[in-house]
Q: What sequence folds into this?
């Protein structure tokens, strides 16, 4: 049983004897080999290389896209920051103008109240004068 454990992963090479194998083939670099197998292996390695190159290139393209998107976002946020600063400045100026106009606005409100009271007094005076006129006409007829 101990021999089975020791011989696991060991293969016999035709030229060198027992060796540790990391592959299932018994291909040796100096051994004559099948040209068809060599061609297929080369094709497989080329296609695997192309595939890995494509995967790495697409990942690199993804990172470039993210980098460009980050730059665009930075620019956009910078623009928005300037716009917000300008809006804040304008709001401050408007508040100052409103505060400077506040006494005049209060005077306008007071004048409006006076006009309303004057208008009410004029209506009352009109009603009183009509009653007085009616009484005068009544007395004139007698």
A:
């Amino acid at each position: 049983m101990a021999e089975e454990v020791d011989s696991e992963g060991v293969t016999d090479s035709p030229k060198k004897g027992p060796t540790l194998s990391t592959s299932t083939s018994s291909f040796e670099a100096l051994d004559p080999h099948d040209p068809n197998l060599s061609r297929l292996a080369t094709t497989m390695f080329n296609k695997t290389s192309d595939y890995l190159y494509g995967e790495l290139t697409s990942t690199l393209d993804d990172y470039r896209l993210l980098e460009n998107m980050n730059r665009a976002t930075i620019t956009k946020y910078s623009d928005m920051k300037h716009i917000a600063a300008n809006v804040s400045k304008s709001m401050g100026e408007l508040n100052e103008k409103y505060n400077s106009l506040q006494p005049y606005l209060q005077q306008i409100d007071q004048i409006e109240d006076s006009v309303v009271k004057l208008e009410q007094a004029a209506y009352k005076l009109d009603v009183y004068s009509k009653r007085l006129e009616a009484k005068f006409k009544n007395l004139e007829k007698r």
About this structure: Residues 1-11 have pLDDT under 50 and may be disordered. The longest helix spans residues 35-141. The helical segments are 2-6, 35-141. The radius of gyration is 51 Å.
